[in-house]
Write a structure and sequence with these properties.
The complex is a heterodimer of chains A (about 110) and B (about 120). Chain A has about 110 residues and is an all-beta fold. Chain A contains no helices and twelve strands. The radius of gyration of chain A is 14 Å and the shape is globular. In chain B, strands 2, 4, 5, 6, 9, 10 and 11 form a seven-stranded mixed β-sheet that branches. A four-stranded antiparallel β-sheet of chain B has the order 1-3-8-7, with no helix packed on it. The chains are: A mainly beta (about 110), B mainly beta (about 120). Chains A and B meet through strand 5, strand 6 and strand 10 of A and strand 5 and strand 9 of B.
């Protein structure tokens, strides 16, 4: 069975600092996709970044980047120059290429302090 | 751009009542999904649809029903509401092909907070 584990229930950092959120997953397939979603207090789920497992290069979207370690089944999210608007729940999710379903972690609550 | 629109945003139901959560998307996406999010948990898939007239169960379908008569609409029906159905419900949509659906992430609605008392 696919699983996604986020081991940090809550984190807080000062504005402008860099923060890394952890995610590990388990899968038996070679072709899969990994996602980080942000859920601010407004409840809207927003796609932050996406990684294709067959690509060795780590995905980057502006201040957001991932550290994808395929052998270790690790997919951490790094937020650089954190901003107050980054305060949110962050969810890691995985999807097998052959299956419609997204598997979600339990989330990490990130608080950016002024 | 409206994206995925869910109504209502909040609702309180009494045990045994029924209601329909509405979901509409204007992106011509073929896949649509209903999730529930319990406190401190990730999302659990209730039902999904790969196109008009086609629906299938997800992980936690008991107590719910869906229909997909058009590409745009995917309502979720709760029959005989129970306290265990207290949750936040999200509708999502995506464009995809075949069994694998999309690999490009979903567009979510803003959610419905449902309380059953």
């Amino acid at each position: 069975a696919q699983t996604v584990t986020q081991s940090q229930p809550e984190m807080s950092v000062q504005e402008a600092e860099t923060v890394t959120l952890s995610c590990t997953y388990d899968t038996s397939e070679n072709n899969y996709y990994l996602f980080w979603y942000k859920q601010p207090p407004s409840r809207q789920m927003i796609l932050v970044i996406r990684q294709e497992a067959y690509k060795q290069q780590n995905a980057t979207e502006n201040r957001f980047s991932v550290n994808f370690q395929k052998a270790a089944k690790s997919f951490s999210l790094k937020i650089s120059d954190s901003q107050l608007g980054d305060t949110a729940m962050y969810f890691c999710a995985s999807k097998m290429d052959s299956n419609y379903q997204l598997i979600w972690g339990a989330g990490t609550k990130l608080i950016i302090k002024p | 751009n409206a994206g995925v629109t869910q109504t209502p945003k909040f609702r309180i139901l009494k045990i045994g009542q029924s209601m329909t959560l509405q979901c509409t998307q204007d992106m011509n996406h073929n896949y649509m999904y209903w999730y529930r999010q319990d406190p401190g948990m990730g999302l659990k898939l209730i039902y999904y649809s790969v196109g008009a007239g086609i629906t299938d169960k997800g992980e936690v379908p008991n107590g719910y029903n869906v229909s997909r008569s058009t590409t745009e609409d995917f309502p979720l029906r709760l029959e005989l509401a129970a306290p265990s159905q207290t949750s936040v419900y999200f509708c999502a949509s995506s464009w995809g092909r075949g069994r694998g659906g999309t690999n490009y992430g979903y567009t979510f609605g803003s959610g419905t907070r449902l309380t059953v008392v």
